[in-house]
Every structure is written in C-alpha cells, then in structure tokens.
Amino acid sequence: MANLLFVLLLLPFPAALPGADEIPMPPIGAIDLNADMLLSRPALAAADTLALLVEANRDAYYKLSEGSEILATGKLLQGSNSLLFARPGLFADSQSLFLLFDLLENGVSFQKRINITLTVDRESEMDRREKTGLSGSFTLGMFHGGRLIGFRKKSMAELLNLKTGLVIPVADPGISGSAIRNQPASQGISLLGLGMALAKFMAVKKTRSQIEAHAIEQQKKRLTMSFIRNKREVRIVIELRVE
Amino acid sequence: MGGTAVAGGPATIPFDIKEKEVAAWTEAALARIERNWIIPPMARLAFAGQVQITLTIKKNGSQQALVMDASSLPESLAQSALQAVHASLPLPPLPENVAGQTFAFTFVFVYNG
Asked: Is the CB of B71 less than 8 angstroms away from the CB of A185?
C-alpha cells in the first residue's frame, strides 16, 4: 500500500488546463430564419431554398444535413452568416424537417439539431377574399297592389360570376321620370364617431412600435410569407426550432 | 308597401298571377330586371340592407315613373338596383286581358351580405 502511494506521488501532477474551470463558449450563437432575405426575395422560396441566419462566435466549419443527405457545407466567419440551402420539394407540401448542424472548430465538433415545420397553403389570399365576399345572397321581390307577385333569390357567387362592374347612375331623373324620393340613409360620419376613431387610432399608434419590435423578433423563428409558383400564389408558414 | 294605381285608369282587376299570361309576363319582367342588376364590387364587403323602388308603366310596357322610395344601402348599391329597373325598360307589353292602362309595381332589392 505504501509502495502504491509512493508511486502515485511520483506521477506528475496534471497541470490545470487554461480556462478549464470555464465552460467554453459554443462556436455559434443564435440560428434564425433570415426573414429579411426570404421576404425580399420570394424567388428563393419558389426555388425550394431556405435562408438561415447563423451568429458565429468564432470561425468554424459547418455541415448541414438531413439524414444521409448533405444540404450545405462551408465555413462560418465570426459574426452574422447567411446560410442558404436548397432542398427539392421543400415548399411543395406541409412537412417537418429534422436537420443536423455539425460544426468543427480546431478539431472539436459540436452539433445542433434544427427542426423546421413548414405549412403550405395553396389557397391564396385572393381566393380567400373571393370566398369571403361570396357568402351573401340577394332577393328581388316584385309587388303589385301590396301583394307579392314575383320573387327571385340568388347567391352572391352566382351574381358575381354573371357580371360585376361599375354602375352608371340613371341620367337626368327629371326627364326620364325617375326621382329619388328619399335619399339613402346617411353615409356621413358623426363628430362623436370621428372622435372615437381618432382616440382609437392614437392608442393603436402608441403601442405600434412595441408590437413591430416584437414581430421582428418573432419573425426570426416563425415567418409567414407567400410566393408565386405556376402562376398561383402559395402561402407558407415556416417555423424554426433549434436544440 | 306595394303598388297603387295611378291616374289614367287604375287596374280594376288586380294582377292575377294564376292567369298563365300574367304569370309569364311577371316572370319575363323579373328575369329582365335580374339580368340587368349589375352588382358593384363593393357588394363583396358584405353589406346588408334593401332598396325599394316603385315603377309605374303603361300597358305597352313603357315607363311612366320610376322612383326610389327608400334605401338603407350605400349609394352605389342603391343605384345598381335603380339601374337594373331602368335598363330593363320598356318592359314587355302587359297581356291584353289585364284591365287598366297604367300599373304600379314595387321592387324590393335585398342585399344580405
């Protein structure tokens, strides 16, 4: 036992590694969606390309992969790096992607897992507006001597498909025998209503900057945008989660 | 609501839509007005309301008077209803067997957005 203790004492005491008591800073910081680039260049999405923004604390090599498929490789420079990668069928359907982001720095490797959820809505905003406006209906009743003698009912959709357009007011009602006996209900705006609207506007304006700042932050992780593919508007929601 | 006979000989026998010819005339008149009802794009903003228009015609279908009695809709929607009636004139001549020389009809256009 004494011999063993002696041998242990003779062994060189391991020198403390520099900074061994500190947790080394990972080579990268935040990984976000590059919202500015995606919104300003919708052609990227149309080409099934996604843009990420990677904050690198130090220079490092990276590899972005999905399963055995390598999507992108290269070198990150300290600071903000835009990372684009194309993947066939990326925005073709709603789906979830599980990507691995491997980093190599001075022979030491790090790994981040990236989960991207894509929701693809092929029904464009224009289509939605059309549908919203088509929910109504109209009826036309014809009376004679106080009795209903004829009645028509049509949906707004049928009517708008038939024809829409500008209405030419009936010219010179005096000559044609036409006259508006009672003017339509007032379309003016009351002072009280105007005051309330102004107060509401001011309240909204006050908080708008806070909301906008929050929205920009949110866009880095969740982005809603649209692009044109095959002459149709495709609306997508991209959600990013990094572990 | 409803039409009233005007000067020049009221229709002593009210419209009898059970009469085949009267029913056909009514259908034709309604179809023509419906066809000429051009819906302004703003109707897509889901307005609800109605326009009441009274038309007085001679037996030959020509207009004697056209009046918008009331409207609870924006001007362009009310005008589209008035224009629908105006553009349909003259209406087809009334059947011979209907008594009277002038006839008043009230049209109620209802938008239910």
From this structure: yes
The A residues from 34 to 73 touching B (CB cutoff 8 Å) are none
Amino acid occupying residue A226: S
**pLDDT (tens digit per residue) in A95-107:** 888 999 999 888 8
CA–CA gap between residue A148 and residue B1 (Å, rounded): 10
The C-alpha of A26 sits at a distance from chain B's nearest C-alpha, in angstroms, of: 55
Q: Which residues of chain B make contact with A159, given a CB cutoff of 8 A?
A: 37, 39
pLDDT tens, residue by residue, A48-68: 999 999 999 999 999 999 988
Establish if A206 touches chain B: CB-CB under 8 angstroms.
Answer: no
Of A134, A135, A187, nearest to B75 by CB-CB distance is A187
Instruction: Judge whether B113 and B48 are in contact, CB under 8 Å.
Output: yes
What digits encode the pLDDT tens for the residues B24-61?
A: 999 999 999 988 988 776 666 666 788 999 999 999 99
Would you kindly state where each structural domain of chain A is located, as residue ranges?
23-124+221-242
The total number of residues written for chain B in this structure: 113
Task: Average the pLDDT over A205-209 and give the result.
Answer: 57
Residue B83: which of A129, A163, A167 has the nearest Cβ? Answer: A167
ipTM of the complex: 0.86
Taking the C-alpha atoms of residue B91 and residue B56, their distance in angstroms, rounded to an integer, is 11
Question: Could you tell me the residue ranges of all domains in chain B?
Answer: 20-40+49-112
- Measured between CB atoms, does B25 come within 8 Å of chain A? no
Contact B53, B37 (CB under 8 A): no
Amino acid at the residue A222 = R
Percent of all residues in chain B with a pLDDT value above 70, rounded to a whole number: 80
- B20-40+49-112 folds as 3.30.1150
Chain B residues close to A160, C-beta within 8 Å: 39, 43-44
Domain A23-124+221-242 has CATH 2.60.40: yes
Is there a contact between B59 and B9 (Cβ–Cβ < 8 Å)?
Answer: no
State chain A's mean pLDDT as an integer: 72
A82-94 average pLDDT score: 89
Is B43 close to A136, i.e. CB distance below 8 A? yes
